[in-house]
Design brief:
Blueprint: H1 6-12, E1 24-25, H2 33-46, H3 53-66, E2 70-72, E3 75-76, E4 79-82, E5 89-99, E6 109-118, H4 122-137, H5 141-146, H6 151-158
Parallel strand pairs: 1-5, 3-6, 4-6
Antiparallel strand pairs: 2-3, 5-6
Helix pairs in contact: 1-4, 2-3
Length: 164
């Protein structure tokens, strides 16, 4: 079916391989996109994933200015590439109240997958985005994750194969 080198890897990838329970935030604060992205950046610096919250925040905002990263159905995947990382990292954030993320379907965003990747790993960045997209499209995954309130339980859901 084509020669896309990203698709087969993304198909086999478990999202749990890109994150950890301490990068899952069930209480992400914010009433708008910029506030949520700032909170994400600050938490990732506190967890030792990134070194500079302001720089990470600016990169995420710059990416959003190119076009929304909202996928629809209440999900957004803000992402950027940054120096100083060895591997792709995915953080997950849940919002108690949905925010406007300029989604084309107009639905407020309640679930975010924030992807940061090393500048030198564009293929891995695309593989992570493709894996998240597949996971989000899978039957009832979004509804299930929004019903969970513990990082470890969410991590367990992310550890399931993409086809389940």
């Amino acid at each position: 079916m084509g020669t896309d080198p990203v698709a087969p890897t993304a198909q086999r990838m478990r999202l749990s391989s890109l994150t950890s329970p301490d990068l899952i935030f069930v209480d992400l604060p914010g009433a708008d996109g910029p506030t949520v992205l700032r909170a994400f950046a600050e938490r990732l610096v506190k967890r030792g994933v990134a070194r500079d919250a302001d720089k990470l925040y600016r990169l995420l905002l710059e990416r959003e200015k190119l076009g929304t990263t909202a996928l629809g159905h209440g999900v957004a995947v803000p992402h950027c590439k940054i120096d100083g990382l060895d591997d792709v990292v995915v953080a997950v954030g849940l919002l108690r109240r949905g925010i406007d993320f300029e989604a084309t379907d107009g639905e407020p965003v309640r679930l975010l997958f924030l992807v940061i990747s090393p500048n030198a790993a564009p293929a891995a960045h695309l593989q992570a985005l493709a894996a998240i997209s597949r996971w989000v499209k899978a039957d009832h995954h979004v509804e299930r994750i929004l019903d969970l309130h513990e990082p470890q339980a969410i991590f367990g859901l992310l550890d399931r194969p993409l086809d389940s």
